[in-house]
Amino acid sequence: MSFSRIEALKKQLFENPREVSIERALLYMQSHKETEGDPIILRRAKATAYILDHVNISIRKSELIAGNRTIKPRSGIISPEMSPYWINNEIDTLATRPQDHFIFNDEDKKTFSEVLYPYWKGRSLKDYISDKLTDEVKATTRLKIVTLNQTDKGQGHIIPDFENILKKGLGTIVDELKNYHKKDQTNHFYQAAIIVHEATKRHISRYAILAKLEASNTTDETRKSELLAIATISEKITTQAPDTFYEACQLIWFICIALQYESNASSISLGQFDKYMYPYYKKDIERGIPLSALKEILKCLWIKTNDVVLIRSENSAKYFAGFPTGYTITLGGLTSNGRCAVNDLSYLALETYQDIRLPQPNLGVRINELIPRDFLLKTAETIRLGTGIPQIFNDEVVVPAFLNRGVSLEDARDYSVVGCVELTIPGKTYGLHDIALFNLLKVMEVSLKELEDVPNIGFDQIIEFIKKNIEYHVNLMVKGSNLVDIGHREYAPVPLLSSIIDNCLEKGLDITEGGAKYNFSGVQGIGIANLSDSLYALKKIVYEEKRISFKELIIALDNNFEGEENRLLQARLINKYDKYGNDIDEVDYISSDLLRYYSKVVEKHLTPRGGHFTPGSYTVSAHIPLGEAVGATPDGRNAAEQLADGGLSPMVGRDSHGPTAALKSVSKLDGYLLSNGSLLNVKFSPSALAKEDGLHKLADFLLAFMKLKILHVQFNVVNAKTLKEAQKNPSKYSGLVVRVAGYSAFFSDLSIQIQNDIIERTEHEL
Amino acid sequence: MKGLIFNIQRYSLHDGGGVRTMIFFKGCPLHCPWCSNPESQRFQVEEVRMLTKCLHCKTCTKNVEECPSGAMVRFGTYMSIKEIIDIVLKDMVFYRTTGGGVTLSGGEVLSQPEFAIELLKELKTLGIHTAIETSGQGNTNALMAIVNHLDVVLYDLKIMDPTLAKELLNADSSLIEANLIALVKKEKKVIPRIPLVPGHTMNMDNMNAIMNLVLKLNLKEIHLLPLHHYGATKYDALNIPYKAKDIKVPTEKEIAKLKAFFEGNGLKVCIGG
């Protein structure tokens, strides 16, 4: 019985093409028109409340967990209050663009063009940001040195304090808010939070009513009792704290949906699910609830996390391809008092995922010296299925990395993964973990070009000049990021989300105003592998071997290595000089020094909310568009060719000494500084991990990874041959899930460029 | 002291347990027609052009250092113990977590015994698990000296018939057998490895002879190494005729049959090491 439900739910989710839904946008606008003159936070709260009260809701066939953001599965909802422009520009190409298609029906297009666009034109978040960005910042974004994110959509990248919500229930939280409000009656945050909380409770009640109605309309007795159960649970958790595992899962999902209406943001992640859900699991097991029933609920929740997809602009979809919606879960790790945190639910989460094998939830496993061998093997077994899930995080690096950022020891041990690979302290952090990307290789290109005509320029001078430029452009990135940060404060406060983030209630502030306990802005340095390869080759060929002059090299790069002589030069640059990823100190130390330099420059800067900027190094899928922006480089890379994938991975095809050497190169980077997260891709052939023996090999490999103090690793376990087949016959492989970058996606959902990139990544035998 | 080494391969998984670094000694007294590393055979440095990588420049310098594509390669470098140890140490973490270590292979390690002993001594000082892969064709005293510093010996048994072994491989099968017996007496872990080459080693007479010897010596485990042709392009580059070129690689069925044959006699069998 349960098997057919799970298959039916999966099928239901994917049987029709994705569509755009303008329902939220229309409701938001209707409310917004009525609240002219109110403070922004109240206008937002009222708009969210209006949506929660009026949006169409549904309970789909066979569902046990209720709560749909849209009636049709996997629809993209739009938020033109953030930016109406990209939608307007791309209204006719959404269905045909290279990445992340959505169908936009004609009637809705018309409504958008005639109603929504004219209303929001000139008054969106995007307008604020575009007006205020200085020419200098705009210049660096045009050069593609800096990419500012979240200028046209919700900020997201946050983990609500689910533990607290489950313990207290919504009723108690509203009571607390009211108490705070009584003491500080003019505080708009409290007022706003009460409005959205009351609306969330009403929204959940609507599901109780709907479930009852559907129960009375069905003749199927089994379904009737399921619907009545949904009704009872929904009614209860409107105010009371959940008691059972089922009730707790249902409350979590309702909160996720309400948060989606509020900000339509990527990556409102689920945090340490096995930790905060364990008490409910344990109680149910003790009460004699069959494990199979709990498993079914869990699988229903897992499937649900695939229903929410984020519609992005065409450009943004290149950087974040294939819907990394970020229902990221972190399993295992340490308790706040330093003991092993693995419990039965950690195993169950992996086991149930093995039956689902969808891109979400994006599971991650924290490993440390205390991890039980059994759990390590369960982890390896799940990785072996080839969906790229779970990804692995190393407590031995992450905990000290957070201590270095001034986080308390207990909070540091409690860290969790948000979004793709970003690191956060759950329930306590507004970290803007995905606020900007910084293209280190482009900085090098610009720097070399500026130095082209300096006579007798030395290698050390080049390095110093690149460092100076890194500092200059990081400064601009900070200015841009802080403006976006303030833009969200001025245009898009999130009172519902804020009310479930620690310290906002005590401080009486929205997270956008600095209400959270920890306030970071995370910025990603990208292209470190190509940068070190390039500088090492430059040093060798120009300064040590003196084969050509600096100027001649620059001219060859300008010509993108065209012509016979340049072709041989390019071959020499690729083949004759050592590359990052092969465990050669001389080249690896260049990358480690420069990434460290970048990190130290970044961490000096402050956010408008009082916290520091934190460096990370991961690309999501941005190594492709950011590569397009960079001309030929001295590592032999052609103009517009992609950059190294992941963030810390070696350039594709340049690591020839096997995975131990690649891992060793990565281990020389100062992972302790990359407190916003980093990313390493490793690809294994399925045969390498076959049988019991293969599992142990992978488990041992993970232990070595841990001892090398590398922060993150994720795996693709699929043959290049299979992927090529899937490229040719996408319909035959519609269920093939692969790892992209910190998240997994359906292979058939990816553009040809990203597909090729995944095929090219070096495959290792184990 | 220096040894002539033609390759150091990190992350080897099939030659002695765990993640291993393989040190390949150059020069071999045998000339097995199916050898997958023809560059391992001669006792001298060789420079060749690998056509697969060649860019066909207008004028070829024939110089390894100058060739831009890396098509001109040098097989063989005289290396010091320290140079080798420096590379070995890079993967120490992996030896520890996977139960791996270092394996000396060839060519034939027994052809450079003094160097092998010094290298193994140094590895043992560092607490590293050691293995060798040998044809057994070498001086018995040298082998006995080497084995003192070894944890595992991977010992090839190719062709048991003395005449055939001499003719085809230039091997002295009685010496090889005597050396194996001497090794077993030393109470070292010895694992025989049998290359599966249709028409040469894969006949039942040969397999029975191997089985009898293995059982007589009370060994528990063997490795079966099926023929492959991955080394073919190197033969062309080295200008050595590849005599096994037309031999079909054994089928999975044939391999399974032999596996069952050895397992039926109580042996643990591993395909491919």
Count all strands of chain A and give the number. Answer: 18
Can you write the helix and strand succession of chain B as a string?
A: EEEEEHHEHEHEHHEHEHHE
CATH superfamily of chain B: Aldolase class I
Classify the helix fraction of chain A into a percent range. 40-55%
Structural class of chain A: alpha/beta
Q: Which regions of chain A contain 5 or more consecutive residues with pLDDT less than 50?
A: none
| Uncertain regions spanning at least 5 consecutive residues of chain B | none
- Helix/strand-derived class of chain B? alpha/beta
Which characteristics define this entry?
heterodimer, A: alpha/beta, four-stranded mixed beta sheet, 32 helices, B: 273 residues, two-stranded antiparallel sheet, 33% helix, globular
Can you describe what's shown?
The complex is a heterodimer of chains A (766) and B (273). The model of chain A has no long low-confidence stretch (mean pLDDT 94). In chain A, helix 3 (40-54) runs parallel beside helix 9, helix 20 (440-451) packs across helix 21 (459-491) and helix 24 crosses helix 27. Chain A is α/β, with parallel strands linked by helices and 766 residues long. Chain A contains 32 helices and 18 strands. In chain A, strands 4-5-6-15-14-18 form a six-stranded mixed beta sheet. In chain A, strands 3-10-12-13 form a four-stranded mixed beta sheet. The longest helix of chain A has 33 residues, at 459-491. Helices cover 52% and strands 8% of the residues of chain A. With 273 residues, chain B is of the alpha/beta class. Chain B has one domain (2-271): TIM Barrel, CATH 3.20.20. Chain B has a nine-stranded mixed beta sheet with strand order 5-1-2-6-7-8-9-10-11. A two-stranded antiparallel ribbon of chain B has the order 3-4. In chain B, a hairpin with a 7-residue loop joins strand 1 and strand 2. In chain B, helix 3 (113-125) packs parallel to helix 4 and helix 4 (140-147) packs parallel to helix 6. The longest helix of chain B is centred in the middle third of the chain and has 13 residues, at 113-125. Chain B is globular. At the A-B interface, helix 26, helix 29 and helix 30 of A face helix 2 of B.
